[in-house]
């Protein structure tokens, strides 16, 4: 009798215990499931988020030729951005096989949320530009950003002067767009070109490197409401340490201070 009672109690206890562990199992399962869903959504989300901290594969959705060595590549985001890319910022692209990275400045409309347009000039021996020029529609390409090069805000300065260097007319990308803009906004955008090797006919603007006279005539005089941005290849007078060589000399001579001349990162603002 005692034995039977003891056995029944033992069976009850086992049943309770197994009920308890089933309950535990279900609760753990529910919480685990919720946790996993949150984790998965978060990690899927961060995998689709365009950020300066991780490379995101973007899809080439359009390729538009500009001239013999330059094309515009439209790269589509996996989902729309929450806010537009700031003006005066660049993106970084990576070749996974070599881990080589380069910067490009998006030229897409400022409020665009679905894609970026990169205007890429192909260099014959250039690693990344050749790789980009070999991309086809539908290919994916690793991009991260934006990296803000100049925290630009509208009207931050009354006048902004920009100096860059070209050898040939063909080197001036978006030449017609700039022409159109300066024609439509003559009081806001004035452009003066100087070319080291100008076309033989019909060239009415500057010839040779940027000179002191050219700066005096075309760049607003030094003043705290003026910002001057400088970039260009080494032939334009850039020193080997990437600081501005020749131009620094001219600007300094004309009385521009470090604040008006450049911001530390401005060497990276544009390209040629
Ligand atoms: C902030 C920023 C924004 C930029 N935005 C743009 C943009 O919007 N569009 C754009 O087209 N570019 C842009 N650039 C330039 C771009 O990042 C690359 O530098 C450019 O595309 C060349 O890269 P690459 O790998 O093709 O050439 P690289 O391999 O770096 O070669 C560059 C040049 O050096 C020469 N070269 C390479 N190796 C050798 C060697 N061993 N000996 C001698 N010469 C050699 C090449 O022929 C080429 O002329 C930007 C740069 C910066 C910093």
Structural overview:
InterPro entries: CBR-like (IPR001834), Cbr1-like_FAD-bd_dom (IPR008333), FAD-bd_FR_type (IPR017927), FNR_nucleotide-bd (IPR039261), OxRdtase_FAD/NAD-bd (IPR001433), Riboflavin_synthase-like_b-brl (IPR017938). The chain crosses the membrane at residues 20-39. GO terms for molecular function: oxidoreductase activity. The protein has 272 residues and is of the alpha+beta class. It folds into two domains: 56-148, Elongation Factor Tu (Ef-tu), domain 3, CATH 2.40.30; 159-268, Rossmann fold. It contains six helices and ten strands. The strands form three sheets. Strands 4-3-6-1-2-5 form a six-stranded antiparallel beta sheet, with helices on one face. A two-stranded parallel ribbon has the order 7-10. The chain has a two-stranded parallel ribbon with strand order 8-9. The longest helix has 47 residues, at 2-48. The chain is elongated. Residues 90, 102-105, 118-121, 123-129, 149, 268, 271 line the site of flavin-adenine dinucleotide (FAD).
Helix content: 25-40%
Q: What is the name of the CATH superfamily of the largest domain?
A: Nucleotide-binding domain of ferredoxin-NADP reductase (FNR) module
Query: What hetero molecules are bound to the protein chains?
Result: flavin-adenine dinucleotide
Estimate the mean pLDDT confidence: 80
In what range is the share of β-strand residues?
Answer: 15-25%
